[in-house]
């Protein structure tokens, strides 16, 4: 989408954490060995390519923020859930990661398959 995407601007304005100072959690965020171990235990899926929409915004300082919106393709997944009450999961890959990384795509696949059924 265009850099002035109203959707992307709305997300950035509502997710104040995107402008906060990054502070990794004590165990998970600072120890990549635990992340690798967890991923090894729970396994990885084959290379996934979930359908998504890419939104980009160029910030005032010239940086680019990209937001990939993945939606559940199962139309019955949120049947009976009022608009605005459907769950939203924000995933922030590591500093060198992106939405095409295998671990991110595996997690997205897991979330899309499980979240609707956890009501």
Walk me through this protein's architecture.
- With 119 residues, the protein is α+β, with helices and mostly antiparallel strands.
- It has three helices and two strands, in the order H-H-E-E-H.
- It has a two-stranded antiparallel ribbon with strand order 1-2.
- A hairpin with a 5-residue loop joins strand 1 and strand 2.
- It is globular and about 40 Å long.
- The mean pLDDT is 75.
Descriptors for this entry?
alpha+beta; 3 helices; single chain; globular; two-stranded antiparallel sheet; 2 strands
Question: How do the helices and strands line up, and which of them pair or pack?
Answer:
Layout lengths: L5 H9 L17 H11 L9 E7 L5 E7 L31 H13 L5
Antiparallel strand pairs: 1-2
Rg for CA atoms: 16 Å
Fraction in helix = 25-40%
Shape, principal axes of CA atoms: globular
The total of beta strands comes to 2
* Uncertain segments: none
Structural class by secondary-structure content: alpha+beta
**Major sheet, described briefly?**
2 strands, antiparallel
**Order of SSEs, N→C?**
HHEEH
Distance between the termini: 32 Å
How many helices? The count is 3
Residues in β-strands, percent: 5-15%
